[in-house]
Amino acid sequence: MKEFLAMGGYAAYVWTSYGITAFVVALNVWLAQRRYRRALGALRPAGTQAEPVRQPTVRKMT
Amino acid sequence: MGLKRTFHLLGSPPTVYRLAGLLGPWVGIGAVILIAAGTYGGLVLAPPDYLQGDGFRIIYVHVPSAYIGLMAYVLMAVAAAVGFIWHMKIAHAVAVSAAPVGASFTFLALVTGAVWGKPMWGTYWQWADARLVSELVLLFLYLGVMLLRASFDDRDKGDRVSAVLAVVGVVNVPIIHYSVEWWSTLHQGPTIAQLDTPSITMDMLVPLLTMIAGFTLCFAWLILKRVQAEILDRESRARWVEQLVTGASA
């Protein structure tokens, strides 16, 4: 295990590369999910607002 | 299914939205499995290189990142051109989605390349190197397309103007690819893009191809998710989106 982590003397370079890659991939996944959640969230208020606006016009007519 | 009908379906936002939702989880699972297998193969199974020792293992994150960075640019440019010519909403949604993801993988290719260059070439960066500089230009092209699009309040205008820059920037793609042959450069020549005489052994090649496939699926997952979000933004007033939000079955 110690030998594996040492990477034949290239530990700093190899693990830095893999670490940055893991970080950027994870960041990408998080950002895409956040982007989707926000797009979905932006629709919700519009949907809930539609109903109270319609109701007063119905009451006026009765 | 005819070509015309396929094209028509791919232009239909609700169809693409649902298809992306169906494909997403499978693509994601495939990406996780392939990247896990490729990482294990690259770090453990592959033998050390006779010249670069264990340092060569950076190839398993560097090459897939560089490949995605280039592939994403071509996808972005083609989608932008299709959107520009046929006024196709979905195509613009794909172009918008490919830009930040492609930029991040191009950034990764540059950084992992620099970290690899230090022990092998003795330097992180070389301004006179055509491969390195053309890859940096790729990153700037991505950022340029994104900034240009963001500078318009009107989405249609932003789509169309940034599409022009994306398409013009395609000239940089072959320059990157052939830079190692046209100019003398620190960067090594192609390793796997010569199928008749591969300059890499199978036990090194299989993890690399696995990793490239895994990164491609990861990219596909990111694009599907982002395209879904783009479609919701662009179609927010459409009836099918309203039904989606209120929970009514369409």
Please, could you describe this protein's structure?
The complex is a heterodimer of chains A (62) and B (250). Chain A is mainly alpha-helical and 62 residues long. Chain A is built from 2 helices and no strands. Chain A has one domain (2-61). Chain A is rod-shaped and about 55 Å long. With 250 residues, chain B is mainly α. Chain B has one domain (20-46, 53-246). Helix content of chain B is 76%, strand content 0%. Chain B is built from 9 helices and no strands. The longest helix of chain B is centred in the first third of the chain and has 33 residues, at 13-45. Chain B starts with a helix and ends with a helix. Classes of the chains: A mainly alpha (62), B mainly alpha (250). The interface between A and B is large, with 30 and 41 residues.
Outline the fold blueprint.
The complex is a heterodimer of chains A (62) and B (250).
Chain A: H1 2-6, H2 11-61
Chain B: H1 3-10, H2 13-45, H3 59-86, H4 89-121, H5 130-150, H6 155-168, H7 172-182, H8 202-234, H9 239-246
Q: Which H/E pattern describes the elements of chain B? A: HHHHHHHHH
Low-pLDDT runs of 5+ residues of chain B are none
The major beta sheet of chain B can be summarized as: none
Number of domains of chain A: 1
Reading the helices and strands of chain A in chain order gives HH
Q: How helix-rich are the residues of chain B, as a percent range?
A: over 70%
* Overall tally of structural domains of chain B: 1
Low-confidence stretches of chain A: 50-56
Oligomer: heterodimer
- Integer-rounded radius of gyration of chain B: 20 Å
Mean pLDDT of chain B: 90
Shape of chain A: rod-shaped
Shape summary of chain B: globular
**CA radius of gyration of chain A:** 26 Å
SS-based structural class of chain A?
mainly alpha
> Could you tell me which chain pair has the largest interface and how many residues each side has?
A-B, 30 and 41 residues
Q: What is the count of DSSP helices of chain B, taking H or I runs of 4+ residues?
A: 9
Q: Beta-sheet strand percentage of chain A?
A: under 5%
- Helix-residue proportion of chain A: over 70%
Average of the residue pLDDT scores of chain A: 80
How many beta-strand runs of chain B?
0
